Amino acid sequence: MGARAPRRRAPGDAQVSVAGTEVDPASPVLPDVARAVGADGHEVLHPARDRYHEVVDAHRQAGFEMLADLTAVDYLAHPGRVLPDGVAPARFEVAAVLLSVSGRRRVRVRVQVPEDDPVVASVWDLYRGAEAMEREAYDMFGIVFEGHPDLTRILMPEDWEGHPLRKDFGVGRVPVQFKEAPGPR
Amino acid sequence: MVEPQAGMDQYLPILILFILGILFAGLSFVASSLLAPRKRPTAAKLAPYECGIIPDREPPQRFPVRFYLVAMIFIIFDIEIVFLYPWAVVFRHLGAFGLVEVLVFAGAVFVSFLYLVSNGALNWGPAKRLRLARPQRTTESTIARVGPEQGPGTGRAA
Amino acid sequence: MTPDSPTTFTRETAEGAQEMASRAATAPAELQREVGSVLRLPEGTVVDASDVDVERGDDETMIINMGPQHPSTHGVLRLMMELDGETVLRTKPVIGYLHTGMEKTGEELTFQQGATNVTRMDYLSPLNNELVFALATEQLLGIELPPRAVWIRMLLSELQRVSSHLMWMATNGMDVGSTTMMIFGFRERELVLAFFEKTTGVRMNHNFIRPGGTAADLPDGWEDDVEVILDNVAVRLDDYDELLTGQPIFRERMEGVGAISAEEALALSATGPILRSTGVSWDLRRAMPYLAYDQVDFDVIVGTYGDNFDRYAIRLNEIRESVRILRQVLERLPAGDYRVQDKKVTPPPRARIDESMEALIHHFKIFTEGYKVPEGEVYVAVESPRGELGCYLVSDGSSKPYRLHIRAPSFVNLQSLPVMMHGGLVADAVATISSVDPVMGEVDR
Amino acid sequence: MGLEDLQHNFLTGRIEDLVKWARRNSVWPVTFGLACCAIEMMAVGAADFDISRFGMEVFRASPRQADLMIVAGRVSQKMAPVLRQVYDQMMEPKWVISMGVCASTGGMFNNYAIVQGVDQIVPVDVYAPGCPPSPEMLLHAILTLHEKIRTGAITRRRGAPAAAPEELAGWVPERPDAVRLGTPK
C-alpha cells in the first residue's frame, strides 16, 4: 500500500572508524604544500588551487571525518597578510576547516583564488556537508565551485545583483536623519 | 403509552422544524451581506494561502486514493446513523427485540469496518520507519553516559 | 484577476533556481541526490538513474511549501516538500528569509562593539555567541584571562544551555501536541531569564561576555539565585520525563522517526545532539576543552538509534548534566577580578575616570576608536546547545575585524533534514524539524 | 430617577461601541515571529506574562482567522513580499503592531539586507520599542492598540483611501509599487 521505499543503499564503505580503535591521523605527507601554524595552534595548509581537492581528499583518507567549516575571505582592502613563502597572495581566499573526530584535531586549508577567474574545485563529492557552505560562499563572494550539484544563491533573493560580502560592495546604509551619523554612506 | 395524535397533525413538529431551518439559513445570508464590511475581495484574498508564498503552479487535480478511502469509511457510518434515527423513535415499543435487532445491524456494519482496516485503509504509516526491537524505551535506556575516562569517538552505546 | 491584483508580487516571492523543480524538470542525477537515497557513493560504482523510483508521473505528486510563515518551522524556514499523499518524497530547504547581513555589519563595528552584533545571531543562546567571539579575539590578542572571568563565563554559558534546552523542550512538546509542556518549559525558562536580567541587565541579547572578560561582576547574592534555579529545574525535569516519555502518542511520533546513521551525520557535518544521537560521542566540551571544562566533571550523553526520541532523551539529560556542572561551578568559582587588567583592552572602572587622567584617556580611546588587534586569522569553536559554534576571525591590525564568519551549527544541521525526513509522513516532518532545533537567526546570519 | 442617572450599560450602549468592545477583547494575532522578538512574543503567550487575560492567547497560524499581525523581528529583503502577501490575505478589520526596533526602523542593522522599517510595506498601528521589547513592553503596546480600537473609528481609517488622514496619506504608501528596494550601490 505505502509508497515503495527506494532501496536505502548503505552510503559507501565508511571511512570512519567510529567505534573501536582510535585512529591517530598523522597528517598525510604532502610534498610541495606550504604549511604553517595558525594563531590558534591548528595546522594551516596553503595548497595551490589545482591541488586543493587532492589535499582535502588526502586528509579525508587520513581520518579527518568531518568538514567543520568552509568559508571565503575577500582580501581586497587588506594591508598585507603573512603567508608562507612561495604562496602568491590573490584577492579571494577559501578557508576549509577539517576536523578529525577520532584524532581530536583540526586542520585549516587555505587556498588562494584570483580575482579574474574566481573558480575553485568543489569538495562536495568528498564531504556532503559542503553543499550549503559552498552555496553561501558563492552567494556572498561570487566564487564558483566546480562540481557543485546546484550552485545557486542561498541567502539573498534570487534576483539580487552583486555579492554582498565583497569589500567593494557598499554596506547599503540608509542615511539616518541626524547629520553626523558615523560610518560610510 | 402516549396516544399518537390523529391524522396529519402528528407531522406538525417536523413542519415547524423545516420552516425554522429555512428561516435560519436565509437570515444568516441576509445578515452577513448587510453587516459585513463592504470590501471587494482582492486577488491576494482569493489566492490560496501557501505560507506567505504566492503559488505559481496550479494545485494538483489528482489526489491520492487514500483520502477518498477515509470519505468512504465515513459514509458507511453515516448511513448506519441514518437507520438509527427511525429505530430510536420507536425503540420503546420494540423492547428487547429492538435491542437485539439493532445490535445485529451494528455488528454487520462493524464487520465491514474491520475488513477495511485489515486491508490497510487507515494505514498511512510512513514508508521509512525504524522498527525498534525494544518496545519500552525510557530516557535512560536509550542513551549512554560517556565519562571523562573514555576518549571521544569510542563511546558506542549498547 | 481584478485590476487591484498586485501583479508585481507574483514574481517576487518566487525564488527561481533556489526552489524545487518538478520531477520532469530535474535531471536524474539531481533527482537522485535530492531523494537522498544515495548519500556518498563508494568509489568506482556507477549509479544508473533507473535505480531511483522516478517512474512517478508529475501529476501524482504534489509540491507544497511548508513556508516561511508556518507555526512549526521554528522561524522563517521554508521547506519545499514533494508529497505522495502524506508521504514525503523529497525536501529542499529554502533559507535566507531572515538574512540580516550580520557578517557585513560585523566588519563595520569595532571589537568592543562586536558582541552586540554577534549576540543576535542565535537568539536562544546569545551568551554562547558572545563567548566564541570573545575567545577568538582573545586568542588573536594573545591575552590570558583571570580565573574568575573564565568561571563566570562557564557559569553563564551553562545556564544558557539550560534555558535553550528548556525552550526546545517547550516548542518540541507544542509541535508534538502537548501544550502543557509549552507552559512548563517557559515557566522554568523565566527563572533563568530573571537571573540573567539581574546579572546582565537584560533578558536576551546581553552583550555581557566581551573580549577581555565580562562587562561586570556577578551581583552579590547570586549564589542563592542560582541555587533556587538548580533545585527547581532538577525537580521539574522528572515531571517532564513523567509527562512525556510514557505517553503513547509522544512515543509514536518520536520513536523511529527521523533516523540518521553515524556515517550520514558525519558526512553531512552535523554536530551536537544530532551527531551524538547516532552514537558518536563528540562534545567539544570534552574533546577540545575550552574555558575550564577539563576541571569540571560531567558526562557526555550519547544516543543509540539516531532518531527523534534519542535526541529528546539527549537534550533532557544534557540539562541534568548542565545542572551538575553548575553545582560544581557554584562551589569552585574563584575570587579575583572579573576581567583582564590590561589597560589597552578593558576600559577602566567608571570611578577611576574622575581621578586619573590616564584612565580617562584609555576610556576615551577604547570607546571611540577601539583597541588594535594584531593581524592574523583564527578559528575557535565552542559547544553551543545545537552543535559546534565556530568563529573564523581575520584581523588586519586595525580596531575592526576584517572578516567575521560564524560557523552556525543550525545552518549545517539543516542539511541533514532532507535525509531524515525522506520517506516519513508530513506529521513526522514536523517532529523532525523540531528535533533538529534550527534557530533561523544563526542559519541566515 | 431622571435620565441623567441612567448608567451606561448594555441597553444604552450604541451598536458601534458594542462592536468595538467585542473586537477589542478578542483580537487574535497571526503567528509572524521572525527573530529574537518572536521568543519574547512566545514568552508573552506563556504562563508568566499571560496574554490570554486579554483574549489573545490564540495565535492563529493562517491569516484568514487573524485580526492582528505582530511583526516580531527584523524583516529581510527576501521576507518583505511574503509579509505583504500575508498582510493582504488577512481579513478586515486588521491591525499591525511593529514589535522591536528592527521592525520599526531597521534597528542596529542599517545595511543592505534589512528593510529599514516595516511601515514601508504595511501600514503600522502601534510601534513597540526595545530590542527585544520586554514582555511588559509588548503588553503595553497591545493595551495601546486596544485603546485605539475602543476609541478609534469603527471602519478602519484605511477603508476608503479618501478617508486616510491628510498628513499620513502622502508619507505612508498604501500600495507600494515595488516592495523590494533596489540594490544600493
Beta-strand content of chain D? 5-15%
Share of residues in helices of chain A: 10-25%
Task: State the major sheet of chain A.
Answer: 5 strands, mixed
Strand order of the largest sheet of chain A: 1-2-5-4-3
CATH architecture of the domain at 34-146 in chain A: 2-Layer Sandwich
What is the highest CATH level, the class of the domain at 34-146 in chain A? Alpha Beta
Overall mean pLDDT of chain A stands at 80
SSE string of chain A:
EEHEEEEHE
The low-pLDDT segments of chain D are 157-185
Largest interface: A-C, 64 and 74 residues
Distance between the first and last residues' Cα of chain A: 63 Å
Could you report the average pLDDT of chain D, rounded to the nearest whole number?
81
Taking all Cα atoms into account, the compactness measure Rg of chain D is: 18 Å
Could you tell me the number of beta strands of chain D? 4
Series of H and E elements of chain D = HEHEHEHEHH
Shape of chain D: elongated
Low-confidence stretches of chain A: 1-24
CATH topology term of the domain at 34-146 in chain A? Beta Polymerase, domain 2
Write down the oligomeric state.
Answer: heterotetramer
Protein described:
The complex is a heterotetramer of chains A (185), B (158), C (445) and D (185). Chain A is built from 2 helices and 7 strands, in the order ββαββββαβ. Chain A is of the alpha/beta class and 185 residues long. Chain A has a 5-stranded mixed sheet with strand order 1-2-5-4-3. A two-stranded parallel sheet of chain A has the order 6-7. With 158 residues, chain B is mainly alpha-helical. Chain B has helices at residues 12-35, 43-46, 65-94, 96-118; one strand at 144-146. Chain B starts with 11 loop residues before the first helix and ends in a 12-residue tail after the last strand. With 445 residues, chain C is mainly α. Chain C has 19 helices and 9 strands. In chain C, β7 (376-384) and β8 (387-395) form a beta hairpin. The radius of gyration of chain C is 24 Å and the shape is globular. Mean pLDDT of chain C is 87; it is low at 1-10 and 37-52. Chains A and C meet through β3, β4 and α2 of A and α2, α3, α10, β7 and β8 of C.
